[in-house]
Design goal:
Largest sheet: 8 strands, mixed
Number of domains: 1
CATH superfamily: Amidase signature (AS) domain
Helix content: 25-40%
Number of helices: 15
CATH topology: Amidase signature (AS) enzymes
Distance between the termini: 17 Å
Radius of gyration: 20 Å
Strand order of the largest sheet: 4-6-5-10-11-9-7-8
Structural class: alpha/beta
Number of strands: 11
CATH class: Alpha Beta
């Protein structure tokens, strides 16, 4: 048999069910790879080696029940896990051990995962870089000191380097998709109402989807999390327990109109040539499949730059809530500069202004969905440029950092504003071998359509066969 990490998560789960491999064997394999490569990549803030091996031995003695019974997998540090240190990326919160699981974390544990550790994430999550005081910066395993992006940077670095078969991630403004693009992975953001709700405040924009090597692995994760229970504020129509995996294996509809948007909608920014080329190669593949690909123009009213200030208002109030509720006054000096800027800024935002900012984002989202309804699926670059050097977006200046991040990640926030499904697919590489993704976005609730289309593109591009150099070490 090939090295265990060569197998997809789906294949590993099948082998575990058939008792061809044990969870103990698989967990030990990944822990050894984490020991070898994890620190250099800044992938983990905590590794639970002893607890993981104990958990693996325990599931080996049990009858398989959940979809991911015995699969070793990390959890993102932004989300509570009962009994496990959860710092939310903050040195000021180091040592916090929640007593309850977050909703999705609980679902994953019920599905039978063995928790390897907590992956590195930026403080409270509002950054498309992963640089904190808790671990080295999260880097793309494709080398050259390139950022893995954020906020799921540690998760993406771990999966791309073969330190985990699949990873729990989350996406508030693109935080699953841009790390997937930088690290050559599939990053799926489900529709609002497909995944149990995350935290209040600005986190209503978010959902906890996967970063994965294959479309099938992403579908496995989403089916394992399951359907929405009673009491959720947003609920899509009920779907079957195998909906995502079935969609990943099902050809897309015969007729689709794909809109191609290259304009990032931010002042003084154009999409990098490699990002445009990623869209071009994906468009050619879609046209070969028989689909119509049409360029679309972004209305001036929907330029993302118009939403910078209201978006920062929502982020500031949400982050200030975390600081005030969770960080004692004497520990706030340990907060990162960007967090302190948001927390201080929140004191200047009146209730009326906050409500107006939310209303502006909601109105823009409604207008975007109406505009996007002219096509079946919208395709864009995932980011405005390929992976940047680590530190390039961490300017430690509130407005400058916010502007730089929005210029680089201008395409992804719209899916969060709209509650729509979106996926990043690694269809292209630069001349230096750095992965570049394209984003597909559909109307809310059309997750199966995106999963099906992603599966068809995977057959063309076979990205699961491309690996960084450390994959083989």
């Amino acid at each position: 048999m090939a090295d265990l990490h060569e197998l997809s998560a789906e294949a590993q789960c099948a082998a575990l069910r058939r008792r061809e491999i044990s969870s103990s064997e698989l967990t030990a394999h990944y822990l050894a790879r984490i020991e070898r490569h994890g620190e250099a990549l800044g992938a983990f803030v905590n590794v639970f080696a002893e607890a993981a091996m104990a958990g693996a031995r325990r599931v080996d003695s049990q009858r398989p029940v959940g979809l991911m019974h015995g699969l070793p997998m990390p959890l993102k540090d932004l989300h509570p896990a009962a009994g496990l240190p959860t710092s939310m990326g903050s040195a000021a919160l180091a040592g916090w051990v929640p007593t309850q699981d977050g909703a999705v974390v609980g679902r994953l544990r019920q599905a039978g995962i063995v928790v390897l550790g907590k992956t590195h994430a930026p403080e409270f999550g509002p950054c498309c870089y992963t640089e904190t005081q808790l671990a080295p910066p999260a880097l793309s395993p494709y080398g050259q000191g390139l950022s893995a992006s954020g906020s799921s940077g540690g998760a993406a670095a771990a999966v791309a380097a073969g330190l985990a078969p699949l990873a729990h991630a989350s996406d508030g403004l693109g935080s699953t998709r841009t790390p997937a693009s930088n690290c050559g992975l599939v990053g799926f953001k489900p529709s609002r109402g497909r995944i149990p709700s995350v935290l209040p405040g600005w986190y209503q924009l978010g959902s906890e989807g996967p970063v994965a090597r294959t479309v099938g692995d992403a579908a496995l994760y989403l089916d394992a999390v399951g359907t929405i229970g009673p009491g959720e504020l947003w609920r899509q129509p009920t779907w079957t327990p195998e909906a995502h995996r079935r969609a990943a294996r099902t050809p897309p509809p015969e007729r689709l109109r794909i809109g191609l948007l290259i304009d990032p909608g931010s002042d003084e920014t154009e999409a990098h040539a490699d990002c445009q080329e990623a869209c071009a190669v994906a468009a050619r593949a879609l046209e070969t499949m028989g689909y119509e690909v049409v360029p679309v123009a972004l209305p001036s009213a929907l330029r993302i730059w118009h939403l910078l200030e209201p978006l920062c208002d929502v982020l500031s109030v949400g982050i200030a809530g975390h600081v005030q509720l969770q960080i004692p006054e004497e520990r706030r000096a340990a907060l990162m500069p960007y967090t302190r800027w948001h927390a201080q800024r929140a004191a200047e935002i009146s209730a009326v202004r906050f409500a107006q900012s939310q209303a502006r984002i909601a109105a823009a989202a409604s207008a975007w969905l109406k505009w996007q309804s002219e096509v079946d699926v919208l395709m864009t670059p995932t980011s405005s440029a390929p992976a940047l050097p680590s530190g390039a977006l961490r300017l430690d200046d509130g407005w400058a950092s916010s502007e730089a991040m929005l210029r680089w990640s201008a395409f992804t926030p719209w899916a969060n504003f709209c509650g729509a499904p979106a996926v990043s697919l690694p269809v292209h590489q630069t001349a230096c071998g750095v992965p570049v993704g394209v984003q597909l976005m559909a109307q809310p609730g059309q997750d199966e359509l995106l999963m099906s289309l992603s599966g068809a593109l995977e057959q063309v591009f076979a990205w699961h066969q491309r690996h960084p150099p450390m994959w083989h070490r």
